[in-house]
Design brief:
binds FE2/S2 (inorganic) cluster, 171 residues
Length: 171
Amino acid sequence: MARMKNGEARGPGKVPISLVVNGAERTVHVEPRTTLLDALRHELNLTGTKRVCNSGACGACTVLLDGEAIYSCMTLAITCEGRSVETVEGLSDAESLHPIQEAFIEEDGYQCGFCTPGQVMAAKGLLARNPHPSPEQIRHGMSGNLCRCGAYQKIFASVENAARRMNGEHS
Ligand code: FES
Ligand code: FES
């Protein structure tokens, strides 16, 4: 059971939760103990968001919640009621990739690619709050996202490349 801010008790069985996912209103039916990660993957089939440690240690599950990068495995879906959730699936359309995705491709910012959706979403959150990050700020801003392949130098180069693209400085 979850006690909402207005005192309302919800659960412990499945309850409807309205989210705005990648700009569209969606309703999931989950128990109050369900994480945002599991709601995205199992209820909405948005499997780009990865479940790796499931304990707030790796960043593979990073999504944007009201524009801020968060670990979706450490966030209950019920606390996201009515809020904006952005996943990697929301970045591109059928025609074109997001500049951050193009930057990761150009810089070869991955090896196995399993951490990449989380890295890309962390980069989006970072560049939204700091469009001109220094190399040091990029390392700090991306420090919540582990890469078991150790592709860090190319990931950092990808974020620099993405910043140039988003600032119209990429040729
Ligand atoms: S899966 Fe969420 S931090 Fe690792
Ligand atoms: S590219 Fe393999 S874990 Fe990062």
